[in-house]
Amino acid sequence: MNQIVVDKNWLPETVRQASNSRFVSRLTKNSLALILAGGCGSRLNQLTHWRAKPAVPFGGQFRIIDFTLSNCVNSGIRRIGVLTQYKAHSLIRHIQRGWGFLHGDFGEFIELLPAQQRLESSWYLGTADAVYQNIDILRNHNPRYVLILAGDHIYKMDYGPMLAKHVEQGAKLTIGCIEMPMDQASAFGVMAIDKDGRVRDFVEKPEQPSPIPGRPDRALISMGIYIFDSQFLIDQLIADAECPQSGHDFGVDIIPSLIHKHPVYAYAFRDAAQQRQAYWRDVGTVDAYWRSNLELIGVTPELKLYDREWPIWTCREQTPPAKFVFDEPDRRGLAIDSMVSGGCIISGAKVRHALLFNNVTVDEGSSVENSVVLPEVSIGKQCTINNAVIDKGAIIPDHMVIGENAQEDARRFYVSPGGVVLVTAEMLGQVLHHAPR
Prior knowledge:
By secondary structure, this protein is of the alpha/beta class. The chain is built from 11 helices and 33 strands. The protein folds into 2 domains: 8-295, Spore Coat Polysaccharide Biosynthesis Protein SpsA, Chain A; 323-428, 3 Solenoid (UDP N-Acetylglucosamine Acyltransferase, domain 1), CATH 2.160.10.
């Protein structure tokens, strides 16, 4: 019997879209996502003193890892492993409390994969070694495709089209990429591609990044998103583990060794509706963290938290509405050009261009401006806080001034290269705990 071949270009548009959606959904259901969430995030300084970077609060009520997890779930990838290592208690607790809604009866899960010396006598030595030490779990799940994802970036991305492109191009590895200004590119993996999008060169964190041809001010950098054919990934992990000279890192060791031997392609992360590069942030420094949070306050921010079509899921604490009390000429509670989360009480104080997480209190006469205030912070009376990040649980005493005198701030707190003042409870002499939170 002759096989009938249907040219999809002759099908009605709605039929083609439905067919493409079914194609992508089959790919996502046959994929496993592994989220690398074990990094210490040392560039965030004291913000990661008690927690791993993916567990750092972001955006008023989320944790950084919620964005990658939400991307997986919203993309239809509901088999997920989270690889943890550094000070993981806060992260593990957050995932257990907020991400238990996946249904095991349908093959959906989020598995926590802490460093536990499954194959080696050491902890995770690098990103590739972290996956290699869980190779038995990878084999047991037996996916067709594996997504390796960073758990410490802020973005909203449908992984389905990237998976489809990976399959259509016959790639063994596909790398998500964006353009980055040259003065920032040295913190990432920088790649060069040919006209077909095939990766021809890849250097992790080069001192002198190579620019995009014809764009001397921009470089093409890796987002830390990799799609592998599963068996191909397993083969490369085993070969890398047996190489004594390897640092066992995807960007430093595995990817450079593959690009001249196998089809490795780049996938440009773009906003199809806006026809421009999509939103993606590495909030790995205090300046970047402060700036990315305050960007959300804008009238039309690039990152839309109010998007019901692509929600960001999280563990939401049950809190009462925010409250603003007193309405007298010299004692009025108000917030201007700000985001204020549940449980906050602004009592005769002024908040301007600031982001307040849950259960923050600001007492009368105080002013908070251009600042990010994490959960359960208490700000006393007649305080002035400007250009600051206040960590969880800190109690700011009455009459304290932060962000007005750089030399005085540097004596007591951490001041970033961009002039942002990071304040923690410990810096204020307040001992909250002696264990990770």
